[in-house]
Amino acid sequence: MKRASRMVLIEKIVSENIVTSQEDLLRMMEGKGVQCTQATLSRDLRQMGISRGFDGSGGYRYLLPGKREETAELFPGREMEAITGMTWAHGLLLINTPPGFASAVAIKIDRSGRYEIAGTVAGDDTILLIPRDNISNEAVEECLTTIFLSNTKTQL
Amino acid sequence: MKRASRMVLIEKIVSENIVTSQEDLLRMMEGKGVQCTQATLSRDLRQMGISRGFDGSGGYRYLLPGKREETAELFPGREMEAITGMTWAHGLLLINTPPGFASAVAIKIDRSGRYEIAGTVAGDDTILLIPRDNISNEAVEECLTTIFLSNTKTQL
DNA sequence: ATCCAGAGTGCAAATTTATACATTTTTTAA
DNA sequence: TTAAAAAATGTATAAATTTGCACTCTGGAT
User: Fold this and answer.
1) Residues A83 and A53 occupy one common structural domain
2) Same domain as A49, residue A85
3) Euclidean distance between CA atoms B105 and B80, whole angstroms
4) Is A153 helix (H, G, I), strand (E, B) or coil?
5) I need a surface site. Which of A53, A128, B15, B50 has the fewest CB within 10 A?
6) Each residue of B54-65: pLDDT tens digit?
7) Does pLDDT of B107 surpass 50?
8) H/E run at residue A144
9) How many domains does chain A have?
């Protein structure tokens, strides 16, 4: 199991469960058939920016890095309609939107916290999406599908 | 010293300093003439929602709630703190910052006039840094260190 | 093919944080 | 004021996280 895919799983587990400790996470990972040590998780979590916070009821839990308030004026679940085109070039994905919609869509992508996506830069009607190294185009497109489709089918 | 006023001091210290551990905080509190134990700080911090996060340069620090990704004010000489993460992909360097800080940091990079850096593109919270051809990642990172650490000896 | 450099990992030790329990301090109610 | 109840804190310890070190693996360069 490679680091990148392990991280993808970590992100998924942390986003969908209340993870109270690294040992806790370790067990969940094993439940998914992925093995490593707690020390490795400590390092992964730091690299991913996932830190221990509070669950609001006195307990501790791990949280994905910074959520930010939604500035998009997109119809929930219909963000896909704001994407008018996509082109791959030099390993980068150029996403076209109607004028003014680029940052709204980019924010949604950024907030997904998907590990496969290193980051985005948004202009007015174009988004440059930079995948992490060694992530396939298909994986990135699957990410986008996951992000923008409400009925996400679970995989991995 | 009462709990409430101790908490006021904790908030002040955490917001104005890079606190890396509870022991660290304890010493700063003592420096302000307030004494308690690490156990008490642990309890105070939980109640205040102050959790341990990352400083963007591989280190740990305590962060006020809601300021999870925004702790870094763009104080002159402390721009490094506004860099919350960096990733290399496709020979390009993606720099993450708190929302809204990207262009401020990018301007600083542009003005440095470093040959190794061909240019930058800044979004809201992401900067795409394009190195010149045949410049190593390490060289670029050294550039950034030079740019941001040149006048940082006072703090951090 | 071989060597080298760097990334990644496990293990165990060190460090840091959380908590059980006892004690002290503060608050409440008379 | 005073007794009882509740809250806060310290101590000691447990639990959790981080890190130094050694080893492995991988990708390049010779």
Assistant:
1) no
2) no
3) 9
4) coil
5) B15
6) 876 668 889 887
7) yes
8) helix A137-148
9) 2
Structural domain boundaries, residue A87: 79-148
DSSP code, position A49: T
Q: CA separation (Å) from B42 to A132, B49, B57? A: 37, 11, 24
- Give yes or no for a contact between A19 and A25, defined as CB atoms under 8 angstroms apart: yes
Q: Which residues of A touch B (CB under 8 A)?
A: 46, 49, 51-54, 58, 60, 65-66, 68, 90-92, 103, 106-107, 110, 118-122, 128, 130-133
Looking at residue A88, which CATH number applies to its domain?
3.30.1360.40
pLDDT reading at A135 higher than 50: yes
Residues B84 and B130 in one domain: yes
Closest among B18, B133, B134, B25 to B78, alpha carbons compared: B18
Q: For A59-82, how does the pLDDT look when each residue is reduced to its tens digit (9 = 90+)? A: 899 988 754 223 334 444 455 566
Q: Residue A146 has which token pair?
A: 């996951």
Q: Which residues of A touch B88 (CB under 8 A)?
A: 133
